[in-house]
Design brief:
The structure is a single chain. The protein has 297 residues and is of the alpha/beta class. It contains twelve helices and eleven strands. The chain has a nine-stranded mixed β-sheet with strand order 5-1-2-6-7-8-9-10-11. The protein is globular and about 60 Å long.
């Protein structure tokens, strides 16, 4: 069993990734390329460096520390020496190889908060199932300490990989984007056949699934798409709640830090109105689903 993997963030005192106060561990790697992705730094499976222009004071400390002269970007070995040398945090290393023991040590610091709030740890990404052996090691370690576990996943993986961790997971936060396969392919770069099949199979062996749906302007924010998603959720065994997450553009500055341009769609997209969100929620509630509006996509 792999006891180390690539982690790019550990967010403590999280309130939006499951019940109670949680520690959210973000694992690197994702096969999807959703244009609205709030963690674009999670997509690449390997560590990488980022640069924030507004923090840079042009002191050249990073240049002096870098073995590759900071150019071209493709030559970067993500050793992190530029980030260590930067006095302002303009250079940042995103992701590092971390052992399961190190992650567990960080998680256990918040155990008191878990016990008082009914919280625990959530493993997210990216797609955490891109590192299945590492994820299983982390879940096993948490189970040995009686810590509530949640996995935030789009289930972009073989069914046996998903089912293989089910007994170690107290709660699945299952991300659905849209019901139409062609639309899903256009918006995320992958089809959704495997995802929907995995939801059906997971529901046969697990009885605590929360479906999370980002409501994305110009993508899935139609009555037809939301009705189709509501029908999928209603006939999926194990679904206990549905969360509709309104899009917001707070992530749009992130691509530039990675040397990329923000997607064109992001420049025009607006947060859905409160009334639209309520209308969509009614489609789910009409099918007997406990449906909440909250968080952000």
């Amino acid at each position: 069993m792999t006891s180390s993997g690539i982690v790019f963030n550990v967010q403590r005192y999280s309130l939006h990734d499951g019940p109670g106060i949680r520690t959210t561990v973000f694992l690197k790697g994702c096969p999807a390329r959703c244009w609205w992705c709030h963690n674009p730094e999670s997509q690449n499976a390997s560590p990488q460096t980022a640069w924030s222009q507004n923090r840079c004071i042009s002191c050249d400390a990073c240049l002096l520390a870098c073995h590759e002269g900071l150019q071209p970007r493709e030559a970067c070995r993500a050793c992190g020496e530029c980030a260590e040398a930067c006095p302002t945090g303009a250079r940042e290393l995103l992701g590092s190889e971390t052992s399961a023991d190190e992650v567990l040590h960080t998680i256990l610091k918040d155990r008191m908060f878990f016990e008082e709030s009914g919280g625990g740890v959530t493993f997210s990404g990216g797609e955490p199932l891109c590192q299945p052996a590492f994820l299983k090691a982390l879940l096993t370690a948490c189970r040995s300490h009686d810590i509530h576990t949640a996995v935030d996943t789009a289930a972009i993986c073989p069914a046996e990989t998903l089912i293989g961790i089910a007994s170690l997971v107290d709660l699945f936060l299952f991300d659905l984007k849209c019901a139409d396969d062609a639309l899903h392919l256009a918006g995320t770069g992958i089809g959704n056949g495997r995802i929907l099949d995995n939801l059906a199979q997971l529901g046969q062996v697990h009885r605590n699934i929360w479906i999370r749906i980002p409501v994305i302007p110009g993508f899935n924010d139609t009555v037809g798409e939301m009705t189709a998603l509501a029908e999928h959720a209603a006939r999926s065994a194990g679904v206990r709640q549905v969360w509709l997450l309104p899009y917001h553009g707070s992530w749009a500055a992130k691509p530039a830090r990675l040397g990329n341009e923000p997607p064109a769609q992001a420049l025009a997209a607006q947060t859905p109105s409160t009334q639209d969100m309520e209308n969509f929620a009614r489609l789910f509630r009409a099918r007997g689903l406990d449906t909440q509006i909250g968080g952000g996509a």
